[in-house]
Amino acid sequence: MHKISRRQFLQWSGALGGSVAATTVLPIPSLAKQKVEEKQYDTIKWAGCTINCGSKCPVRVFVNDGKIDHIETDNTGGDEFGSHQVRACLRGRSNRFRVYNPNRLRHPLKRVGKRGEGKFVKISWDEAIDTIANKLKEVKAKYGNEAILIPYATGTTGAIMNRCTKGPFMRLMGMFGGYINYHNSYSTGQIANGLKYFYGTHRGSDIMQVENAKLVVMFGNNPVETRMSGGGTGYAYKTALEKSGAKIIHIDPRYSDSLVGACDQWVPIEPGTDAALVAGIAHVLISENLHDKEFLDKYCVGFSANTLPKDAPKNASYEDYIMGRGDDKVEKTPKWAEKITKVPADTIVKLAREIASVKPCYIAQGWGAQRHANGEQSSRAIATLNVMTGNLGLPGTNAGGREHTTGWIEPAHLPFKNPIKDSIPCFLWTDAITRGKEMTDLTDGVKNTKQLKQNIKFILNTGGNCLINQHSDTNKTAKILEDDTLCEFIVDVNVTRTSSNKFADIILPDATPLEQEDFVRSSAGYSNDRPYIIYSQKAIEPVGEAMTNYDMCIKLAQKLGGKELVDKFTEGRTQKQWLEYLWNKKFENNPNMPTFKQMTEMGILKLPRYKKPYIVHEEFIKDPMANPLKTPTGKIEIFSTALDTMAKTWILKKGQKITPLPEFENAKNGPLDPIRKKYPLQIFGYHYKGRTHSSFWESAPLREINPNELWINPLDAKVRSLKTGDKALVHNDHGKILLTVKVTSKIMPGVTTCPQGGWYKNENGIDVGGCINTLTDLEPTAISKANPQHSALVEIEKYRA
């Protein structure tokens, strides 16, 4: 190998930089001619990243002597969008650090101290499975299967066989007699329900419809960071913008990476006030006769008095609400909206006129805007902006919700059936522990029963960190979990030690996606109009005694029901044989698809782009009679008949309200809450590049590249004597967290933010892990009973140890 001294390097670089026209012959070409020895590998395997980021990406795993040497990403295809490489981000490429992490779970563990102390000892698989089986039998006999919960989790949501939800454990527990169900998600609880009452679905158009738009308006939407891989929405969004040349307006309290190089106007807004902004815009549209009255009369219920349901009260339309004829008698002028949103009135007027006059207009909202105590109202209000301007069902339009994907192709899923139908909102599992038998359909939104039969006594947590980290009010949640007279037994299945499995009684070591055969579930990601399928070829054997979920369940089935239950559960198949069965079930008669054997050898299959990116509600707009929406009236319900009934029958918490219209509602811990005098700053957590929720926090290189920083505006920093690099104590009545300060104008005054997903670590009353949920509230939203984790108020001070 030719060695280059520093002196030679400086001489050569000086010659190049100092005299472009010089005739000096440099020895650089001779370096290029030298042969560089390529490292040889025993195997190079395809695998997939199955975390819940909204993208699903392939990785190539380079293996020598049974160990991973390094990981690269997709190298097939070209640079042109449509034939492009599906390149994984740094998180996907860092999976090697998860496999060989110092905190990697290699053996089953049993708690030996008090629950929550984090004291465990290594035990055998036989002891672990025996203990779990005996406790399951005990709980079933004493309390019934309704006392068993497999809680919401997303750490391996992208898998088929190793899926944390709707995977092997749900299949087995269904055969054991069942478990309590859950509905909603921590991601989309408010928007999924809010838009269900509005459109009958919360699905949106493909982001590639931006190609056909002349104006793009984003409410709190950040696809470049949240879905940033080569197969994700972020790349597609940037590509579509380049082709369309549309003007882009981002309405967001934070200047995110989605705005960098792709934003013509940033409109900072107080978090949780989107419905007030839309109301101010609506006032301009109505006052200046800019709204599409023909569209509203034909397709909608409740915008004006003439389209209200017959039994609706007088002055109950959205137009009445906006113009001050409703119950509150307040006219929603731009000046009114300015006081709430901090968006100047003249900006609101200009926004209204521009959105009304420039068509087609693609309006979308991210999932951050809806994760407030009034999130259902915000999601519905933003959608109202679409229908007021007739921007629906046409090329270049969306429905006001989040962008979606045209379609995906994947094998069938592992079949399972739960004989128990009772279901709780996924966010209310801590309530189901402490007061389950008190929970009803009218007070807590439980489904398929009037009242729960039992409190939760057994938790089987697989591939998730929602037991503590991603749940609200971590300090209060920790107290609930520590009390083993409430929930009597907790099993945690994961690849590494986490803040959640600190509260487990038994911890089982899971195999990573690189240590097993599986399909990556395409429907767990958003590949837009270009579908692909990833098959994970087992790259290495599981580390230590780690085991796949499927093999764990076989062991547990043997203890719960002997050979009969094992045979029923497996149907005589190994994990790979199940994958073959599920592939053939879906594609055996499709001549355009490869055989299972061919797919396992290929690793990745890229299919042609769809001929047209999906346009939501296109068929409804073409013929609303032949293609009614899945709402009670079959139309767009600005006045929701279902919510009107709920408002009259549901029993709500103090201060809560359900209204059939998408009105702005004051939110608990929101900008107008009187407690803001004590805690003047709004705080919310954002998704960022270093983690997906809490996944990859354990990767030290990613933590170094993406520090856990608290963003604060220079005006707010100045009055608190804070500067970049300071340690700050962020606190409210729920708790205290420690973060490093970043002073930046990319966050509006009165608002602060930090990445969500920092791992909860309580030391002497301070969460030094910087988990934002130490500051969030456990009270659910009124309609969905969902997590209001972006409604939080805090004060910040310089930390002095």
Automatic annotation (TrEMBL):
Alphabetized NCBIfam families for the sequence: dmsA_ynfE (TIGR02166), TAT_signal_seq (TIGR01409)
SUPFAM superfamilies reported for this sequence: ADC-like, Formate dehydrogenase/DMSO reductase, domains 1-3
Entry-linked PANTHER family: ANAEROBIC DIMETHYL SULFOXIDE REDUCTASE, SUBUNIT A, TRIMETHYLAMINE-N-OXIDE REDUCTASE
Residue ranges of every copy of the 4Fe-4S Mo/W bis-MGD-type domain listed in the record: 42-103
Cofactor: [4Fe-4S] cluster
BP GO terms, sorted: anaerobic respiration
Record's keyword annotation contains Membrane: no
Protein keywords: 4Fe-4S, Iron, Iron-sulfur, Metal-binding, Molybdenum, Oxidoreductase, Signal
Family to which the UniProt record says this protein belongs: Belongs to the prokaryotic molybdopterin-containing oxidoreductase family.
InterPro entries (UniProt xref): Anaer_DMSO_reductase (IPR011888), Asp_de-COase-like_dom_sf (IPR009010), MoPterin_dinucl-bd_dom (IPR006657), Mopterin_OxRdtase (IPR006656), Mopterin_OxRdtase_4Fe-4S_dom (IPR006963), MopterinOxRdtase_cofactor_BS (IPR027467), Prok_Mopterin_Oxidored (IPR050612), TAT_signal (IPR006311)
Pfam families membership: Molybdop_Fe4S4, Molybdopterin, Molydop_binding
GO MF terms held by the record: 4 iron, 4 sulfur cluster binding; dimethyl sulfoxide reductase activity; electron transfer activity; molybdenum ion binding; molybdopterin cofactor binding
GO CC terms of this entry: outer membrane-bounded periplasmic space
Name of the protein in question: Anaerobic DMSO reductase DmsABC, chain A
Domain of life: Bacteria
